[in-house]
Amino acid sequence: MATEIPPYGLRAYALLFTKYGTQEPFQQSALDWMVGESMKKKIFAVLLHSGWIQKQTHSTYRCIPPERVIKGLLEFKVPDIVSQAEKRYCFTGASAIEIWSDFSYVQRGIEKSPYFIKVLKKDQGYWKKFLNENNIPNYIGRGSTIGEYVILIPVTKLNVIEKEGVKVEPLPETIKMAHANEIYKYAHNYIQKKYGSPAA
Description:
The chain is an alpha/beta fold. The chain is built from 8 helices and 8 strands, in the order H-H-E-E-H-H-E-H-E-H-E-E-E-E-H-H. It is elongated, with a radius of gyration of 21 Å.
């Protein structure tokens, strides 16, 4: 799983890949005469954490093949990352419809993959920081970009249940939304057939 890196990391990766390819191991000293010690440590930490290089031994590294890195940038990773958060949340809206319909309705592709997540207003700062640290584009209320991104919906109160280990908005609220929009007709029918009509 690869994540986006800042321009200085991209330049360092390009240099390391050009010099060493993907088979030849290298050490941090490969950047000795180009950057200072603290910047060198920062570059290697970014490349390692973001999945662009991998550690071979205690002191050597290898480049991940560029085609794997590029493909990895568009892999679906948000659900796994979000599940590691320390604050409460739940998938809502179209994301909840996906989950409750057992993904018979899917709103995402590698080109565009939004996740709608309710969080407590008081935790909004935590979520922005958490998502930014994990290189996940995120917006409050609305927004869009290429690939995966999160739309945070701040609320004062959260109603959360777990469905197969995933934190999601309860079924009655999800059914209401699916029923209200023609685009979700297939998913609504699927959910109704599977669960009936639970009382709100």
